[in-house]
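Me: Here is a favour to ask of a fellow structure person. Could you put it straight underneath, so I can go through it closely?

Assistant:
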Amino acid sequence: MAYLGIPKNTIEILQKYNFSFQKKFGQNFLIDTHVLEKIIAKAEISKEDMVLEIGPGIGTMTQYLCENAKKVVAVEIDQSLIPILKDTLSDYDNVSVINEDILKVDINRLVKEENDGKPIKVVANLPYYITTPIIMGLFEKKVKVESITVMVQKEVAQRIQSGPGTKDYGALSLAVQYYAQPEIVANVPPNCFMPRPNVSSAVIRMRLHETPVVNVSDEALMFKLIKASFSQRRKTLTNGIHNSSELSFTKEQVAEALVQMGKNENVRGETLTLEEFAKLTDILKQCEE
């Protein structure tokens, strides 16, 4: 068994198949066994688990997942990687590879068919350009997921984990924290990948909340308010919401709602907590009725 976490083995398989990296798919393969072991440990993969792996590449992490999980379903968009995966995963009978774009896969159906509808764990070395749509897609489609452990650009991981009043705090922080408890569990330098990316990476684990951390009367409205509040960071929250094409509240309605909450009407979105956005949503919802 040639473990692909060892650089020499990765080079051999790439040469064997004359593989060329596709920039459009943001391909960077891990070549560090310590990082791979850490991801498996932090994702808490056990023989009870079905794991969905997004973007297996040549199967580097897939090999580790297969050895630790009950079942692995790997979704890979690049057709040229499918024969390589067939080769590198040939020793495992607990893996299935789907050649598909993860954003088009019906993951709820997959969970139902492959795991009897029981919660799964998601593990991925995500292409940086579609990190947010993939993570948010899992949350918004209400996929039955216990945890999501993903390698992302370090800046994105910091954004996800940050709190109110910090420069990294924004719509992504609030969206993820509404659904899950995020924690950066490892920092990964560029030399752990082939080819080397220009940025540092981090592994972030998101454990989904069993019950919502805040109660809100209209989830969709809250996310529209959050998006509007951060779309023009330098503007006040009142102006941001008033300028949004998705919302129809007047400046007066927003200012009044903030005063009701004991806030100054000139506050910026980045100062509000998730609970406060939920409260703002509930007050403004009454204006719509």
